[in-house]
Amino acid sequence: MNGGPAADGGPAGAWHRLHPLSPVVRSGRGVLAVAVAVAITRSATSGSGWLEVAFLAAAVAAAVIGWLVTRWRLDGVTLRIESGLLRRDSRQLPIARIQAVDVVRPFLARALGLAELRVRLAGSSDADGRLAYLTEQAALELRAYLLATHHGLDPATPEPPEHIAVTVPAGRLIGSVALSTAGPAAVMVVAAGAVLAFVSAAALAALAISLVWLVIVSLSLVWRRVSTQYGFTVAQSPDGIRIRRGLLGTVAETIPVQRVQAVRMIEPLLWRPLRWCRLEVDVAGSPGRDSADGTARMRKTLLPVGRRDETRFLLMMAAGAAVPGLTRPPRRARWKAPLSYHFLAAGHDGGLAVSVVGRVRKVTTMVPLEKAQSVRFVQGPLQRRLALATVHLDAAGHVRAEFRERPQAQARQLVDELAALSREARRHAPPEG
Amino acid sequence: MRCAEVVACAVVLAAAAGTGMGLAAGPAAAVIAVGAVAAGAAAALWFARNRFRSWAYQERDEDLIVERGVLIRRLSVVPYGRMQFVDVTAGPVDRVFRLATVRLHTAAAASDARIPGLERDEAARLRDRLAALGEAKAAGL
Hints:
The complex is a heterodimer. Chain A is of the alpha+beta class. Among the domains of chain A are: about 5-95 and about 125-155, no CATH class; about 260-430, Roll (PH-domain like), CATH 2.30.29. Chain A is built from ten helices and 20 strands. In chain A, strands 7-6-5-11-10-9-8 form a seven-stranded antiparallel sheet, with helices on both faces. Chain A has a six-stranded antiparallel sheet with strand order 14-13-12-17-16-15. In chain A, helix 1 packs antiparallel against helix 2 (about 50-70) and helix 5 packs across helix 7 (about 200-230). By secondary structure, chain B is of the alpha+beta class. Chain B has four helices and six strands, in the order ααββββαββα. In chain B, the strands form two sheets. A three-stranded antiparallel sheet of chain B has the order 1-2-3. In chain B, strand 5 and strand 6 form a beta hairpin. The chains are: A alpha+beta, B alpha+beta. The interface of A and B includes residues 372, 373, 394, 415 and 423 of A. Strand 18 of chain A pairs antiparallel with strand 3 of chain B, so a sheet runs across the interface.
C-alpha cells in the first residue's frame, strides 16, 4: 500500500493512505488525558462514567474517519493532499515552489515509529501541507524525493550532507533555563516561604498550597523548555539552516536564509557572567501560534544558549554578512539615557545594520539592509535640547534596529544614507525562492 | 478640522460648566468656570494648530517622506517598493470638510506614515499614485 514514492514513477502516481496507526497518534494525547481523568473520578466516586466513555469513543471515531478520508499522491510535479469528510479540502502543492520540508516526531509517533511531514511553500512560514503520519522511512524518502525534484535533480539523489555548526550540550541547556526567569522566580518563592515559616506557622499553612503550586508551575515550564530544545543542533546545508531539537518529540526544521528578516542576540543579565547568549531569527510569513512541537512560528530560536565565540559563525550564516564596526553615542547622551548609556552602540555598512540596546536584557539586533522596510527619525523634546535624535530601521514584524541618541546632523544624514543603501541592497538582492 | 472639533467641544463644555456652576454656587462661580474652560480650549486650539502646521510630506522618486510632530518630531521614509497597501479614511468630521487621511502600511508594524487633513481629491490622487508606484517597484518580502 505504501510502497514508497520512488515506486511511483511517471506522471500518474497512485493514491496513498496515511499510516493506519495515525488516528492512534492523533487522538492519543486527548484520549490518554480523558482516560486518566476517568480513572481518577472512577476511583473517587462509584458513578458510571458513560459520558466520558462516549466522549472517548467519539474522539477515536473522529480520528479514524479523518484517517479514512485523507489520501495523498505525487503527480510528477505536484503533491496532492485530499482530506475532510463534510468539506473536501484538496491541496495541490507545486514541488517547484517548495521552500522547506520539515519532519516532526511527537512522542507518541516516535514510540510507534511514525513521523509527520510538513511541507512549506515559498511565501509562507506556516505548514501548507501536512502528512500525519507516515512511517519514518517513508517520510524521509518522500522528503528526499521532494527536495531532489525541487532542485531539478534525479529523484533518487540522496540528501546533500550538512555541516554541523553548533550543538548545545544538555548541561548548558538545563543551566540556561534554570538561570532564566523560571529559576530565580522559584528560588524567590521558596525563600519567601521560608521567611514566612520563620515569622508565623499559621501564615505558612495558609500559603503553602499556592507556594507549592507556583513551584510546580515553574518546574513544568523548565521541563517544557528542556524537552523541546534538548539536543539542539544547528547545521548548515545548501537549503538553509537546519535545526534539530527535541527530547521526547523531535523536530527537524529548515530555515532558508533568504527568508530571514532580522537576527537578534539576547544576553540576559544572569547569563552575562557566563558569557552566554541566545539567538533568535525573525522569519517572514504569517504569524503562527507557538506549539511545543511546532515549526510554524514567525520568531524562531536559532540557538537557545551558546557561548559568545560560538555564535559569531552562526550570526554570519544567518545575517549573511560579517558584523560591521559599532559606534557609541556622544557623551551628552548620558543626560537622556543614564542607565543604558554604557551599552548603547550601533553601526552599519552596505549590507547590514546593527544596534545594541538594553541594560538588563542586552539585545543586539541585526537587520540586513535588503530586508529593511522603512526608516524613521524620532526626536523628543529632551533630545532636541541636547541636539540628539534616534533613527529606527524597521524590519518586518515588530523588530527594528535603533540608532539611539545620535548627534542631530548625523542622524538626518543617517536617514538618507540608510534609505539609499537599502534601496541599493534591494536592487542587488537575489529573488525570493 | 481639528480646530472645529476643539471649538465645538469647548462651547459645549463651557455651556455645561456655566449652567452647572450657576445653579450650584451663584453667578460668580459660573463666570470662573466658563473662563477656565475657555482658557483650556484656547490652549488646545493653539496646540492643534501647531501640530497641524508641522505636518509635511514629500513624494520623491523612490520613497515617500512624512514629517510631523511638535513636541516629538518624527520623520518616516517609506520606500514605494515596500508598501503593502494604502488606506484612505475619512471620519464624519472629515467628511463635512471634504478631507481624508492617507495611511501607508509596510510589513513592519512600526511604520506609521500617515497624512491627515488632505483634500479629498488630493488624497485620491496620492493613493492612486502610491499604489501604482508600489506595484511598479515592488520587491518581494
